[in-house]
Amino acid sequence: MALPFLLHTDTVLLFGDRKIRFLGEIGDDILKFRYADGDEELLKVPCDGPDGWRLPTVAWVITQFAAGKLFDPQYNEALFTRSERYLCLDRSACIDIDSKTGWRFDWADRVITDKIKRNPTAIRNWIATHDGPSPKPAPSSLLRWVKRLDDNGRRIGALVNCAGREKGQSQLPDVVDRIVHKWAMHYWRPTKDFMPLASMDDVATLVGRDWDRLREMGIPSIGNEEPSYECVRERVLSLECYSTFASRYGRIAADKKFLASGETVDVTMPMERIYMDGTEYEHSLFYSSEFEIPASKLKGVMAMDCFSQFIFPFTPFAGPFRPEMGLQALRSIMTPPTLTPEELEENPEALLFYGLPADIMIDRDKTLIRPAMIPNLVNISSSVELAEAYHPNAKARLENFHNFVKAAMRERPGQILGPFDKAYLGYNPIKDTQMTRAQYAYQVEQLRREWNSKPKDSLGRRSPNDIMAAYIRNHGPRLADPGEVWRALSSTPAKKCVLTKEGVTYDGIKYRWNREGVTKMLSTNARNMALADRLKRRSKLEVSIRTWDDNIDFIEVYDPENREYHRLYSVDPGYTGGLSRWEHNLYKKYLKQGGTGAKSDRDRRRLKMIHLSNRAKNLAELPFRKRDEPTALMEAEERRLAGKLATNPNFGQVPELYTPTEIGGQNRQDEPTPPSQGQATSFDANDMEPLDQRSDPMPAILDDVGLGNPEAPQTASRWDFDDADEDLDADSDRDED
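Request: output the structure for the sequence above.
Response:
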């Protein structure tokens, strides 16, 4: 039976607040509708039958149309355009339909009133200087709104959003929209009946396959073309949320992406909580102005006060992250900073911006703070905790400082970004390198000072320096004893060492030169020794030691009976003086790989210098990624030499006396003495130098360059290479003495 009105299959009608879709006529004037939203159940209407519900009939449809409860939402679109529907409305009516209409009109009407030029550059400059309702629009959008007002007599109704559907409602036909939604959800939540989809291309392929099947079946109202790839991609992205992302990638990845950055921490004053983290900067840098080879990128390990956001001093460095850099960051918190006379005169209180923190949160990385340091570190800090696992922004305020520095340095040449950055395709940052490591470190330091002196809204328009100064004046910092801080920042190896009257050997290095302390330990702990060892006069004792990763020239041995530590020094300061544990491990590896193990302390120093010289010569031949490690070794050696030159400028006048480590034996409890005459002395076959003695330069040479007596006036070097006879006579006199 023909219907008395025009109603096609799959036509969507609006019944009350819900949409229904016409499926067809069953017979006997009975029609079949299904809800187009919700659970998609069949539409049933009340009746007087036994069940109280039945399918709608033709009469019911006519009655509901007449009552205004059932209508076709697309009927009025054929009468006039959607934009003309709102032109006669006033401002309040337009804002009720689209809340952003008033905002668009205020900006566009002001452009017409001020007679601004209609080009993107002029509009962009005008937007930057004009104080209109927030937020500021994009120049292209504002130009489009101005054109609409010009075309419609400056009526506000021209700016109403007339898309014809609610926000979030799809413009696709109903059946096609369901297909797109089904496969987009399968991308996020695969089922057992179908394999997971690898990419959005697979989603678009399956949507096109189902659309072709609908067209072959003759289903009407599916459009002339299948949904585009961009339509499918937008649907997939619109379904991205915590639950869908967790279904595809796991909860850990979803926590990283969707959980809030940072953590809620209740702090009431400075030095209550300290953040510590490391970052890698983004620029390729020359080794130096004299050695213009792109060597590496710099890194930094820094600490921030959680309350005041004050950044403590730090030094950018080359090479990988390593524990001695974490030690430097911790010392910058607990020891007075190094200030220039100008800075000290400007703000004397800045010298007090240090103290013992109550809590330290460090990054979950063993290369910053070794686990062996934690037991000693908690002696001066109430607690030491790790950042939250799988949470890269657990220290959000310190991460903000990283972004501040990198954003300020972003325009410098030589920036190295990821391979997928479209703006840098074809750009070679290595060839565009223009800055040295020293220049880059200086600019980073200036940015740190700017951060500390810049007022911040989160601090009530006060700077971190102001907060720290107020804390010092009102509360007073808990000043730390530098010696106690130094001892607390040590590491305690789990394995004990054996102490004899010859000292201790640890990590391939022999330590002694504290005969009084060793004798005291062995004597007071004699009851812990075996009787046979006492009779044979070879007393030995298992002891606990503590070390420092940034200087392996000495260790401290614990005396359990006297409850004190005794410091022992290396017998080879020419190698170990100022050497870090990280460098020592590398040199051991290189010597082992080369098959040239050091037979004596002199060989070890010689092979170390040969290795550094070879790395410097071959640095330009290495790939950029492999220049990081040799640059760090050369930088550390350069820093030790700079410290020696600062101690005595005359030392640099005699390059033949180059020794890259500081001279030992100063400020000790006892002066190093040679072994007794009764002990057998082993000699090296090459230079006949006693291996037991400490390898210091000759005292006569030290006197020449002013290093023999630190209190003696510094005189010019007597090494005049033009007058060879005088030097030979002086050497002969020395031999006769």
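Confidence is low (pLDDT under 50) at residues 651-665, 677-698, 710-737.
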